[in-house]
Design brief:
The chain is built from twelve helices and 15 strands. The protein has one domain: Rossmann fold (3-Layer(aba) Sandwich). The protein is of the alpha/beta class and 347 residues long. Helix 4 links the parallel strand 1 and strand 2. The two termini are 27 Å apart. Strands 1, 2, 3, 4, 9, 13, 14 and 15 form an eight-stranded mixed sheet that branches. Strands 7-6-5-8 form a four-stranded antiparallel sheet, with helices on one face.
Length: 347
């Protein structure tokens, strides 16, 4: 998964094909509606007001969220002195730079692109649909034994194929044994990279908040008996399927997020977890409906934004599957995005 997504010049996120929006493989919330960034800016402004810090966005995609967020923070009177973007893809970095130059050149002097995490972080660290793109391990629970499912070359044509091998005596084995899997034959993902990222960020966070938005579940729901084949999915030209051997390097490969693992990693690293909720609750808490109602009823803009808002908050769309989790260090007020609908008890 790591090679298929990130191999230099060949991986999905390292090569040049268009990925985001109607012409790409999927549409993320920032591309769907500018109201997403407008609501996110309310939470960001609150953190920046308390810390006087900066924004660090991980994996900024098309740059849509960064541009819209900077504009809205400026409107709120809280533009950060620096908006840093950690982007591993050279192609996406160029697209982000081009977007800022074309749509918000007045903010280019405050935006910078990083090759690695800074040693000290104060302010807001933001990751929208980042955790789901971090590599995971596939683990097969079978007959009371643990196996890791990997990839081999098989047959005369040397095609990719799955193969299990016994799993023991490793960090992965220990993590798998601690999961609530009761079924005799069960396949799922174990993500070690996402909690490790949270731990690395926690080590560097001086004062501020980590805010991640992604699709996933708390652990008890993630490893539910009925989810016996895991969540690994591929995306290509707005189609979803479960075969990662189809067009490797041209297809996005993702897995849902175990938010319990994310919260545990934060707590173990000394952070607080002041909020965990659905995307719908978070956006509504940050004023989404008030912004919609401020538009002229019946106008084309109102109708357009209403359709977009439905996709952002409806349970059958992004509203419930997508979650938002906050992890913080230092004295911060109760985050506005989690005032109602807090789901930390499910973790």
């Amino acid at each position: 998964m790591d090679l298929a997504l990130y191999a230099p010049g060949l991986g999905y996120y390292a090569a040049g094909a268009r990925k985001f929006g109607a012409a790409g493989d999927f549409v993320t919330a920032p591309e769907l509606s500018p109201l997403f960034a407008a609501c996110l800016a309310v939470q960001a402004a609150e953190v920046l007001a308390e810390t006087g810090g900066e924004v660090l966005e991980l994996g900024a995609g098309s740059g849509r969220l960064a541009v819209d967020l900077m504009r809205e923070l400026a409107r709120l009177g809280r533009p950060p002195e620096r908006y840093a973007i950690l982007e591993p893809s050279p192609d996406l970095r160029q697209r982000q730079q081009a977007r800022f130059a074309a749509e918000a050149p007045e903010w280019l002097d405050r935006v910078c692109w990083l090759d690695r995490l800074p040693e000290r972080i104060t302010g807001l660290v933001l990751g929208n649909e980042v955790l789901d793109a971090l590599p995971v391990h596939l683990v097969h629970w079978q007959g009371g034994q643990l196996f890791e499912r990997g990839v081999v070359l098989a047959g005369a044509g040397a095609a990719f194929a799955w193969q299990d091998r016994p799993l023991a005596g490793s960090t992965l084995a220990e993590a798998a044994r601690n999961l609530p899997v009761a079924a005799a034959d069960y396949l799922s993902e174990v993500g070690l990279a996402a909690p490790a990222l949270v731990g690395s960020l926690a080590e560097r966070l001086v004062h501020g908040m980590l805010l991640f938005i992604d699709y996933g579940f708390p652990r008890a729901e993630y490893y539910h008996r009925d989810r016996a084949t895991g969540t690994l999915m591929c995306h290509y030209r707005h189609r979803a399927f479960d075969d990662p051997f189809y067009l490797p390097g041209l297809v996005d490969i993702t897995a849902h997020v175990d938010f319990t693992a994310i919260a545990d990693a934060a707590l173990e690293a000394g952070l607080e977890v002041p909020g965990y909720t659905s995307q719908a609750h978070f956006l509504i808490n940050c004023g989404l409906l008030e912004r919609l109602h401020a538009l002229e009823p019946g106008s084309l803009g109102y109708i357009k934004h209403t359709a977009q808002v439905q996709k952002l908050i409806q349970p059958s769309e992004m509203g419930e599957l997508f979650k938002v989790i906050a992890m913080s260090k230092g004295d911060l007020p109760a985050p506005v995005g989690f005032l109602h609908g807090d789901k930390r008890h499910t973790l």
